[in-house]
Hints:
- The protein is an alpha+beta fold and 711 residues long.
- The chain has four domains: 33-172, Rossmann fold (3-Layer(aba) Sandwich); 176-381, Hnrnp arginine n-methyltransferase1, CATH 2.70.160; 386-532, Vaccinia Virus protein VP39 (Rossmann fold); 536-709, Hnrnp arginine n-methyltransferase1.
- It contains 15 helices and 36 strands.
- β23 (494-498), α14 and β24 (526-533) form a beta-alpha-beta unit.
- α5 (95-107) runs antiparallel to α15 and α11 crosses α12 (432-443).
Amino acid sequence: xxxxxxxPILGKMxxxxxxxxxxxxxxxxxxxxxxxxxxxxxxxxYHVAVKAAVKKMHEMxxxxxxxxxxxxxxxxxxxxxxxxxxxxxxxxxxxxMAKCAQRIISGCNxxxxxxxxxxxxxxxxxxxxxxMKHRANILVTEVFDTELIGEGAISTFNHAHKELxxxxxxxxxxxxxxxxxxxxxxxxxxxxxxxxxxAEGPEVVVSPPxxxxxxxxxxxxxxxxxxxxxxxxxxxxxxxAPVLRFDWSGKSGKIPTDASKVIEVRAEASGxxxxxxxxxxxxxxxxxxxxLSCAPYWAHPSYEFHKETKQMPQDCDLPWRDHWMQAVxxxxxxxxxxxxxxxTLRSNHDEYSLWFELVKGSNSLSETTSHPICTCGFHxxxxxxxxxxxxxxxxxKKYASVMSRRLKELGAMSGDASGAxxxxxxxxxxxxxxxxAKLAEKMLSGSEFKVVCEDKNLxxxxxxxxxxxxxxLGSSVEILTEVGNVNDLGGVKASMVLGEPHYCSSLLPWHNxxxxxxxxxxxxxxxxDAMLMPxxxxxxxxAVQFKDLWKIRAPVKCVEGFKMEDFDxxxxxxxxxxxxxxxxxxxxxxxxxxxxxxxxxxxFDFRKALPExxxxxxxxxxxxSSGLECNGIAVWVDWDLDGTPENTISTGPSGKHPQxxxxxxxxxxxxxxxxxxxxxxxxxxxxxxxxxxxxxxxxSLQAAILPSCGE
Length: 711
């Protein structure tokens, strides 16, 4: 069939011929089933708890009738059947997984013990002619996400107790507890709140609009691998404390869809309460003896560490999971506290999400609270990664330094006949144009100038218009959705072109090469000697050994004694049809070691025309001395601002190039491209192909790569 696909270099949608089941295969390929099945702690504790529930029912003289909601591969249902359950019903609403579960169950010789219902649990009918002949007395389910309730756990459990379960049932898991830790964390705050851009030299400031500084921000949860943030990045105002509790067992009655809990605590350290870290644990059995914790390393009950180092060993053996991480919540405003100060923390939830409020003093919070929403447009327009890059001081310093030097050169140039000069900024959601205008006011004294910013994202443009007005730049800065000809520049050809580059639709770093395409398109509106920033870019790759990330795409094979080959085949087939082999990942969250030196794949000069033909580069990743296997290739882009190495903006390793065998420190404000592989030895031959007009990058690999990782 034909499918509309976005072309990042051209900035428009194009038709592409794909398999008729493309959408279904894409959903399968990007599901988190493999990650969950690799979570050995989750699997083991579910198995132990299910076995105990079946045994308890039998000890009470009752048949163990099990219902598994959202069975996925059928794993929990098979656990129940193998533990001696008298009947097992498993429901799965996603048809491909329901069929896959049936094949897996048959392959494990349990088809006669498990009934698969391809429906949502809320659609199941109990009765003589219904889907289930009778109610179940054991419920086993895993309907949780990082926020615990984001997948509809509350409504799922409430409906099950009302319609599908007996009153004295056993539920696995039985309860959940949410923990909150209030911290001062400037790094986390950088993903949320814009900061003034202060340029040195001629000191100028671009300040965020007041309404943005007071905005509550985006309501969506910010889920991250909190352990990788490390204790050195924050100051704990209060230690982790239990704040909300959910009873899945039904013994406490219906679970409320809207509730809050207020606790009064004293600050354990002086600082600014800015951010709330959250995670949860599950009590798998009614007695609370089997506990699964999602805590970061410093709060995990099974991990001891040296507190004086304030750092997590990269190779610690805590259970790793990507389907349940930890969450960061931003308070409406920061609250300065001294050690010993009393403050009130309110934890709120609706049916699907959480939020937190904090005030100084004793329980002075209003009883009526509402979920925070973005009212300023900033948080709704940009991802938290993008907000972080806008706040990155090192980036800003380099941009301002190069712009200042370019403006000095511009001052020495003649403009048009009237001496006017135009600066063109080609990026979306960028402060460069505004900073250029502020600098030009100081450095082009007496010269007439204008800054035109092209921002094709309408929501983004509306927000930056407020930035222009609040910084009193309306007379010198104009933001357009598209520049078409020299009239859009006030009749004056651009003497300088700026870009970060950044485009809201870009998923992978090289998608931002749309900047180059726009320069080529707009050559007729550029002065012959127009200065560029950046002047070029390069695409780099490095072979790495991921500690854990490989699990999201690796074959499962066998889980708790149950064969999963049918699932592995489904995922592999779907990846080959519906998913790109190079995928975006924030690698700072996923420890990996360098097992080859960085290799430059392609280098681009923006002062030259965009190539028409496919670019091909062949080479080899070779690092026998590292003594490590390779299970991934990391790919990134370096943006060359002015031709000097010190003014390069890298989206890859931060600081110096990593040494072989060392853990890599990655840029925290962009996502890198990742190609995950089966474990392979060196050397690895590669052929990189880049199609400029599609911005399509591919890596063909040969040598010790296993067949399951083929093209």
